[in-house]
Amino acid sequence: MAKKKVHITELVLRDGHQSLIATRMRTDDMLPICGKLDAAGFWSLEAWGGATFDACVRFLKEDPWERLRKLRRALPNSRIQMLLRGQNLLGYRHYPDDVVRAFVQKSADNGVDVFRVFDAMNDVRNMRVSIEAVKAAGKHAEGAISYTTSPVHDIPYFVAMAKELEAMGCDTLAIKDMAGLLTPYSTVELVKALKAAINIPIHTHSHATSGLASMVHMKGVEAGASMIDTCLSAFSEGASHPTTESLVAAFQGSDYDTGLDLGLLQEIAAYFREVRKKYWQFEMDSHQVDTRILTSQIPGGMISNLSNQLKEQGALNRMDDVFAEIPRVREDLGFPPLVTPTSQIVGTQAVLNVLTGERYKSVTNEVKNYLLGRYGAAPGKVNEEVKKHAVGNQEVVTCRPADLLTDELDKLRTEVEGLAKSDEDVLTYAMFPDLGRTFLQERAAGSLAPEPLLPPEAKNAPAGGAQFAPNEFKVTLH
Amino acid sequence: MAKKKVHITELVLRDGHQSLIATRMRTDDMLPICGKLDAAGFWSLEAWGGATFDACVRFLKEDPWERLRKLRRALPNSRIQMLLRGQNLLGYRHYPDDVVRAFVQKSADNGVDVFRVFDAMNDVRNMRVSIEAVKAAGKHAEGAISYTTSPVHDIPYFVAMAKELEAMGCDTLAIKDMAGLLTPYSTVELVKALKAAINIPIHTHSHATSGLASMVHMKGVEAGASMIDTCLSAFSEGASHPTTESLVAAFQGSDYDTGLDLGLLQEIAAYFREVRKKYWQFEMDSHQVDTRILTSQIPGGMISNLSNQLKEQGALNRMDDVFAEIPRVREDLGFPPLVTPTSQIVGTQAVLNVLTGERYKSVTNEVKNYLLGRYGAAPGKVNEEVKKHAVGNQEVVTCRPADLLTDELDKLRTEVEGLAKSDEDVLTYAMFPDLGRTFLQERAAGSLAPEPLLPPEAKNAPAGGAQFAPNEFKVTLH
Ligand SMILES: [Co+2]
Ligand SMILES: [Co+2]
Asked: Is B320 a residue whose pLDDT tops 90?
């Protein structure tokens, strides 16, 4: 067999800390090790996007654009990769195309080399403009499949989507398994089918939650995947990703040898082990492998969110009923992947269906919008009866949702005139209007202050640590 | 490809808790779940031997034979498996053959079906009598290779050993990777070579320390291994083993499908998750993957033991020197695998070599005995200069060490006359003369009391938890 080097995307600066310490790692803890990270020889370093933008503005009171510029300077020889939610960018609504184009261009200008673009519904119409913008900026576009399992999510479905992404100009294709649902042999089938259908390289991303991801990467590589996502041991495993050092060691000496230096990786991991200790207050108590998602289809983060919702209602004893209701609601909605925002949409409706004692007696606005096509096309057929009950004869959006939006950039500029010092500032405000405005105001006033980190001594106080960790990020965009 | 069902050995009752909570799980925490464990359909349940016998007598004040009988009654449909250190049985010296034969026969009588037999030196002469005794008792003999890496431990070495074990009548062959040194593709080479040389089924055992073990099992199975060792998620990963549920899920639907019910396994794991909480005081702070063993060759448990030794001498700053000295001492001794007792022998001598400022200025008795052949044959050539310096012209044992021992059982019986109520009691005394006698005396006096478990509230006391965990078991027989 010919040598077929595996390429590594290192996740410690983004998905690793997003998955394990609620995206709280500060830029100051990243920069001192960038020299070594830059020298390691990764294919790319995922370091921006996902929930990092939100966490910077909301909790760390850091300018996310400034973080990107600092990382760019500190990583002169590396590809910086970001995760982008297509037409949602890094916010929580659909943006008009002018905002999408501006955001991608500014991300490129400030340092992003590789853009991984996905859509929660796998509706490629929601990905097209951002992919075009990446190519227009001369950067690397990676189209991502949001992997899930359902009667409609079969191999032909994913192959058809991959072909569309390739046709849109994507340079690589990512299989994004945000919940850890891929199994090694299902990966082989999927990768082989994709290799037969498309010519661009394949990149695998699979969370370690269910203890399968290292095997998934290995079998994916044997089947023809070229790049794998891993995280250095200090922020690996559990809700995060398989360990970089382990995968490098696994392939060492084989035809797939990554060529990376295990000793250097261990040094970098040792640095991050110390860093992680500072953030103990954000640790979730979830170090053990949990395969329940494979039988329940319900992501771990969604479970903790639901139990909080039920607790507030004094109805924690209805958890099993909610668990049984979730797959039914998901089916009624045409089997969306359970990832932000669809996981919240499905989960909240399931809770209502159980607590009101009658299915769809009360219907959330999000479910109504979903049924009206405002998030994009459902993967499968929606339940027409439920739809009729929920939205009656209201007109359903069949075009791309953003086609209904008009350009906003000028309006946004006007709204933050005086506060915004740059287009980047305008885009920060666009992502999070309230939060972004407050951020810009505090910056102007010189009063930006990050949420405090509890000192190590506080760790053994009777209150314990786990309850400090917020849940809101657990169901978010991996 | 023909269906090739993978068989699972479940480790939660032995290696799982030995690796993660210092072997402290009590029989009372095992019995309530045995009904479900018995129904799960494992190839075997490892439940006895290793360090459990010692822990029962030393800490839990349980009669280990009584535990075995209780498990036997509670697991009527399961094969109970034990780990046996060949001529060392479950103690810390070589026993004469009559004691070995009696111990194996009594283990079989009380409920063991499968005996995994190994020797720290891989000297099959130290395994022969116990394997013969297993066959004489009509039970399943599994000969184990202690896997390590060194210039002498190449594939032909392990193949030759495996052929000897097969010729001795072993029913299966185990590859026992106690430190997590196997990589997936080295496993393929080893398993393929073994399959070509022997006819008995191959069983893989690989600790998860370095994050490679699930891949090791998967590639081992693809190369022809028939049985794999895994542990339910409540006691899996880290210093323990890959997760049972994950491997079952990994193979589900493939040609290797285990046929086990994931839902039932999740139920059993949920039970053990609660059990584990009771033993928090014995948790080691080692949940993260650590690949350093792959570069340093020094097992994690050995590192913590060494740092304790150095701390006592006020010489923690010499750690790096000791790390560099260990491979040199190991080479001088002909590359023994680093496992009890050789890990202590090598480690302690390395510390002396560094602290005295002169290599072998002081030589431990254990090193002298090692060089005199009293542990068996060294895998490679020993350094003749070191040997001459350490033991001069003393006569070297070239026969099997136990050939120099005379039968002891009658003498042992006499020594504990009155206290021992059965041959099992005599064997308990034979394993641990002081501890065993005390145990039998306390049992007679009705004063047996297990070491106390700290209440959950104590967990958050300022003293923290990790330091309660003793180190002595970390370098012990996995
Ligand atoms: Co992710
Ligand atoms: Co073991």
From this structure: no
Interface contact B245, partner A, CB < 8 A: yes
Which residues of chain A form CATH 3.20.20.70? 7-282
What is the tens place of the pLDDT at every residue in A63-106? 999 999 999 999 999 999 999 999 999 998 999 999 999 999 99
Gap from CA of A187 to ligand 2 centroid (Å):
30
Comparing CB atoms, the residue among B250, B289, B292 nearest residue A237 is B289
Q: What's the confidence (pLDDT) of residue A312?
A: 86
Q: 3-state SS of chain A?
A: CCCCCCEEEECHHHHHHHHHCCCCCCHHHHHHHHHHHHHCCCCEEEEEECCHHHHHHHHHCCCHHHHHHHHHHHCCCCCEEEEECHHHCCCCCCCCHHHHHHHHHHHHHHCCCEEEECCCCCCHHHCHHHHHHHHHCCCEEEEEEECCCCCCCCHHHHHHHHHHHHHCCCCEEEEEECCCCCCHHHHHHHHHHHHHHCCCCEEEEECCCCCCHHHHHHHHHHHCCCEEEEECHHHCCCCCCCEHHHHHHHHCCCCCCCCCCHHHHHHHHHHHHHHHHHCHHHCCCCCCCCCHHHHHCCCHHHHHHHHHHHHHCCCHHHHHHHHHHHHHHHHHCCCCCCCCCHHHHHHHHHHHHHHCCCCCCCCCHHHHHHHCCECECCCCCCCHHHHHHHHCCCCCCCCCHHHHCCCCHHHHHHHCCCCCCCHHHHHHHHHCHHHHHHHHHHHHHCCCCCCCCCCHHHHHCCCCCHHHCCCCCCCCCC
Distance from CA of B310 to the nearest CA of A (A): 21
Whether B295 and A233 lie within 8 Å, measured CB to CB: no
Whole-number Å distance, alpha carbon A373 to ligand 2 midpoint, is: 55
Min Cα separation B441/chain A (Å): 41
Rounded average pLDDT over B321-350: 92
Interchain proximity A185–B294, CB inside 8 Å: no
- Given this model, what pLDDT does residue B388 score? 97
CATH topology of domain B7-282: TIM Barrel (3.20.20)
Can you tell me the mean pLDDT for B105-131? Answer: 97
What is the structure's pLDDT at A466? 39
The domain covering B297-402 belongs, at the CATH homologous superfamily level, to Conserved carboxylase domain (1.10.472.90)
Q: Which residues of A touch B183 (CB under 8 A)?
A: 249-250, 252-253
Where in chain A are all domains bearing CATH 1.10.472.90?
A: 297-402
> Mean of the per-residue pLDDT values for chain B?
92
CA distance B375 to chain A (A): 33
Average confidence score pLDDT of chain A: 93
